[in-house]
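Task 17 of the worksheet. Students: predict the tertiary structure of the chain below and write it out as structure tokens. Keep your answer in the requested format; marks are given for formatting as well as content.
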Amino acid sequence: MIMKEKRTNSIRSIFLMAFGVLAILTSFTHTNDKPKYRLIHNNDGTDALANMWFNRKPDLTREDINRYVDMVADAGVVTTFMMCTGSDFVFYRSKYERPFGDDLNGTLSCEGSESERNAFKNYYNNFINLEKEGTDIIDASLTRAKERGMEAIITFRVNDLHFADTSKRCRVSYPDFWYNNPQYWTGDDTQGMNSAQALDFTFPEVRQHKLNLIREQLEKYEQIDGYDLDFMRFIVLFKTGEGPSKAHLITSFVKDVRHIVDSVSTKRGKKILLSARVPITVEGSLEKGLDVREWVKLGLIDFISIGAHWRGETAMPISKFKTDLFGAGKQTIPVYGSIDDGGYQPRELFSDGMYKGMASHILGQGGDGLHLFNFYFADYGKVDYEKALNKSGLVCRTRSQRLLTELGTVDKLQTANKIYCASDGVTNSYGVLQVADLPMACGNGKKSNASIFIGDAVESTKPKQQILFVRTDRKARMDIYVNNVKLSNSIPDYAEKYDRLHGMQEGEEMFAFELPEDCLTQGENTVSIVSKSNIFVVKRLEVALNYGDVSSNGYF
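Model answer:
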């Protein structure tokens, strides 16, 4: 594991500068000296196509899509709306691929699941409904985004593996190019779910197929302001270990995309941006075949987002990424941190406070903006807080317009109730390198150290209460120090009060300690643990900053 970089003297000024930029969310000024701030809303489109936000009614209309976009726009903070194209399984009529859900009049089988067949029928019926109105979810959503004053960007999942599970025996769910060309699969099952069936970018035929789709989409949607290459959905391009030696193939691929983007830009007389979403470290990106340093050197991309695959990274190492990307040179493009929807464990959803902690972590480490990935709302964007809250009424785990506004509004985020979380060290899906101190083994009498980053200027914002939560894999006796201050005020009932028992595994134990007022500092904070008995493993470290009543400072 790569150790987290130590706090520098400039962390405080970086954080305050980031929040200063955040205060002018609606400004789209971009100079060479100050990258543009963005709060990006990125969604995979299937929730809209299935009409999940509007009671799944089977007659999707353009007006429904408008309402879908309006719920995002009405939060008042989103600058950039990204819509997925469906990857190889496209959301429009294509020369190169069958539309999403089309079973060719019932001729394509789905032996594995009748419910899955019905789900795809619903997708396709809604596709047809929109087509009758002369549109599709890409066109309708991006047109509405422009009407609501947001940047409109297509996001293309470079190698989506959702529809590459051969065990399902559901032909209707398999893209045609993928299904008809198994000779182009990696055959390597060591990287993660469906990785053996991932298309291998070693083959020029694979790269050309992707370029055909990209060119088609760039030429088809005239309203777009940009095009995003999402390499994280899924980050499998080659066999294990081949990434560094074959990175030149992906660089050449990105060059080709840049050429198409520039050509379309010239024809339309306006600049179309090219961006990418990549792993959370520069070295991890290269390991997977993405030489992001070379891309920046060649001027191939206009901004970059770093993120995990689904299982969210709670402590995005954005400062390290920027240092490694630009070195001693001047920053040339914005770098954003992606917050994914997957949660600690699969579907152990992040709480409101964790979202705010992750956002503050990204901005506090010098991130130029936020990239929210699959930030799904409840039906109609409404939240029944009586049902959504935990017993104490402090914690909410339902994404909402309220939370979205808090993430993008400076006077709410700086003094918002939040939870900072150290990286738990197990979000390295598909073998992506991480920056993590956890999980951390603690032996009898041995001092073990881990770091947790605090973005708030706690010396001036002065939270009313600061609480440290520690989760171990088993019962443990220990002494705990934060920045060399020994903790003594154990408050066990706070673990339940702040919903930190959520997702507990068998045998695990949770500890809660109130921190002295001046214990924390802005930047990296060292948590030292000395076992007083057995060997155990620290699995999570979290700090809750309580600024006041949830009605004014938000839920945890």
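Marker's comment: The mean pLDDT is 92. The longest helix spans residues 243-268.
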